[in-house]
Design a protein that fits this description.
GO terms for molecular function: transmembrane transporter activity. It is a multi-pass membrane protein. This is DHA2 family efflux MFS transporter permease subunit. InterPro entries: EmrB-like, MFS, MFS_dom, MFS_trans_sf. Belongs to the major facilitator superfamily. EmrB family. There is one protein chain. Helices cover about 80% and strands about 0% of the residues. It is mainly alpha-helical. The protein folds into two domains: about 425 residues, MFS general substrate transporter like domains (Growth Hormone, Chain: A), CATH 1.20.1250.20; about 55 residues. The two termini are about 15 Å apart.
């Protein structure tokens, strides 16, 4: 690496990182902030559930399309220009959303927001990998984990409280001044840390990537609502898969790939990537199933549902920096094994909940589950990235962030499908038994009986899905035993010397 870069590593630019942190935090927070407000938006703009869901699905799709291209943007443009452009887009989208006179304007504003936020997370992660030496990356990435995990966890609680007291527009009004202040500080304080390269964007790869990742994200995220037999679902998944395979093959044939998939020749990066995918699928079980259980079956309000998850978010926020320091000292394997063991046990206990499970028990189980998760995601991811040469950091971060988006969508779709299928089968079985035992007195309470059957069937569906999630976490636990601590050399890898010279020339 260049002398310039080494000097940056010895004295990390904490002020710059703080600015990037705040920008990334509000961007990720905004991804989940709107979910609780969807019913209020449906009522105001008189749109149906399918249309309003695009406020969340569209945001995720834009992220899935642009994050793979972030490796190119990070290598081609300076940190300052890239962050300011991203923050400008996010701020403009937030302003438009706050003032939106029609649903189409609000949807467009969310797309603009997403275009800005998609670049922030890969940029922040890449700056931190460059700014900190390997032996201090754990603590730094622990702080990064605080942003990545805490922001979406706080979103439902915060939005639930705001919607209960104010208009849904307040969700954008509170984010806007933070975005503007961050933008001002970025103009004044931001500096360039990472090296730039004069590379060209392969537009064919960009199109294939957009169709591939976009198709998979749309297909899997729509499966729960439209059903797997819908041509919109299986059609977009097939098209996305074909485009993605073509995209990957093209990256191996081009001299300057948009995403360098050769990073998978590094065994610890490949292993960390697989574990992260499995964990993302398992993590979504509690984030999806628990709100369904507490709101639909138990009649708990959305605000109380969000508050149930708040202690878990706080624990993750507290643990992320601590976990980072423990990673620097002990490595990823011991943390991942302990964390995933906790995740397996708590997932199993969630499969035993019933209609009488105390609210406090649910809070404790969810909090302990998040405590376990906090010891896994960032240490595993950081250990994998540590094995990559610096020139491949943008590609590693882009691949990790993209796979999290895709695996999150796939995990959500699969778990919802498992729950729905199990619920349907259980309801049919219970209905058949009820009909066989029905007499004249029970026949008068058919509506009440049907509701009772559906509630019982859904509870069985949720319990069964948590069992599936438990076994998914067991797979991740087994893989965690194969993690090895990596200590890459600081020597330039092939191609890095040229990058360093270009970086130095640019500085002069």
């Amino acid at each position: 690496m260049s002398t310039e870069t080494n000097s940056v590593q010895k004295k990390p630019p904490y002020g710059m990182i703080a600015i990037l942190f705040i920008g990334a935090f509000v961007a990720i927070l905004n991804e989940t902030l709107l979910n609780v407000a969807l019913p209020a938006i449906m009522e105001e703009f008189e749109v149906n559930a399918t249309a309003v869901q695009w406020l969340s699905t569209g945001y995720m799709l834009i992220n899935g399309i642009l994050i793979p291209a972030s490796a190119y943007f990070i290598q081609r443009f300076s940190d300052k220009k890239l962050f300011i452009t991203a923050m400008l887009l996010f701020t403009l989208g937030t302003l438009l959303a706050s003032l939106a006179p029609a649903f189409s304007v609000l949807l467009g504003a969310r797309m603009v927001q997403a275009a800005g936020s998609a670049i922030m997370m890969p940029l922040l992660m890449n700056v931190m990998l460059t700014a900190f030496p390997v032996e201090k990356r754990g603590a730094a990435m622990g702080m990064f984990g605080l942003v990545m995990i805490t922001a979406p966890a706080i979103g439902p609680t915060l939005s639930g409280w705001l919607i209960e007291h104010y208009s849904w527009r307040m969700l954008f009004d509170i984010v806007l001044p933070i975005a503007v202040i961050t933008l001002i500080f970025a103009f004044i304080k931001l500096k360039d840390v990472t090296a730039q390269r004069k590379i060209k964007l392969d537009f064919v790869s960009l199109v294939l990537s957009s169709i591939g990742f976009g198709g998979l994200l749309y297909g899997f995220s729509s499966a729960g609502e439209k059903g797997w037999d819908s041509p919109y679902v299986y059609g977009t998944i097939i098209i996305g898969a074909i485009a993605l395979i073509t995209f990957v093959l093209r990256q191996f044939r081009t001299d300057e790939p948009m995403l360098e998939f050769r990073v998978y020749k590094y065994p610890m990066f490949a292993l960390s990537s697989i574990i992260s995918i499995v964990i993302s699928v398992a993590m979504f079980s509690s984030m999806i199933l628990l709100p369904i259980y507490v709101q639909t079956l138990r009649g708990i309000t959305p605000l109380d549902s969000g508050l149930l998850m708040l202690p878990g978010a706080i624990v993750m926020g507290i643990m992320s920096p601590i976990t980072g320091k423990l990673f620097d000292k002990y490595g990823a394997r011991v943390l991942a094994v302990i964390g995933l063991s906790i995740t397996v046990v708590t997932s199993y206990f969630f499969s035993k909940i019933d209609m009488d499970t105390a609210y406090s028990t649910l809070v404790l189980l969810y909090t302990f589950r998040m405590f376990g998760m906090s010891m896994v995601m960032m240490p595993v991811m950081t250990n994998g990235l540590n094995q990559l040469p610096a020139i491949n950091n943008p590609h590693g971060t882009a691949i990790n962030n993209t796979l999290q988006q895709v695996s999150g969508a796939i995990g959500s779709a699969l778990l919802i499908t498992v729950m729905q299928n199990r619920t349907k089968a259980e309801a049919e079985d219970l209905a058949a038994k009820a009909m066989a035992n029905m007499d004249a007195s029970t026949a008068q309470n058919t509506a009440e009986l049907k509701q009772q059957i559906m509630n019982t069937a859904m509870l069985h569906g949720i319990n069964f899905t948590f069992i599936v999630s438990t076994w998914i976490a067991v797979v991740a636990l087994i893989l965690a035993f194969f993690i090895k601590r990596v200590k890459p050399s600081y020597q330039n890898q092939p191609g890095e010397e040229a990058v360093s010279k270009e970086f130095e020339a640019g500085k002069d």
